[in-house]
Design brief:
140 residues; 5 helices; mainly alpha
């Protein structure tokens, strides 16, 4: 009885975070979560007057992107969801550019977020490409 696994419990030891990697699944999901953690730290430095507008929209875009990634991970037909995620990623790039242009962030933070977004973009692009290849080979 002591070694039986209960339903609903993730594998691994929660105290050592063994199961966390298994639950996170995709690399792109982990990279997005890392980006969100970094951005949440940087949002503290934004002007107070922008926190209810610009920062709230930025956060909404982040969560929308994360939602599309998780949805695509669970769906059988992923193409449309991945394309929507690609649009959200482009919006995230725009928010990063605007943050720098409006001097909410410095150049170092801008470059770091840009690099993270490019890395996520490469992962997403590879995923989209693999789905296109899968759909063309399935049609033959």
């Amino acid at each position: 009885m002591g070694n039986q696994r209960r339903y609903g419990q993730p594998p691994g030891n929660p105290e050592t975070d063994e199961g966390r990697d298994q639950r996170s699944g995709l690399i792109i999901l982990q990279k997005t979560k890392d980006l969100m953690k970094y951005l949440y730290i940087s949002f503290v430095k934004y002007p107070r007057c922008e926190k209810l507008g610009f920062v709230a929209d930025y956060k909404q875009c982040l969560f929308s992107f994360l939602n599309h990634i998780i949805t695509a991970q669970k769906k059988y037909f992923k193409k449309n969801t991945l394309q929507e995620a690609d649009v959200q990623l482009e919006l995230l790039r725009l928010y990063n550019d605007l943050s720098y242009d409006m001097q909410f962030i410095d150049e170092k933070r801008y470059k770091l977020v840009s690099e993270k977004l490019c890395e996520i973009g490469r992962l997403l692009g590879g995923w989209i490409k693999s789905q296109k290849e899968t759909s063309t080979t399935a049609g033959k």
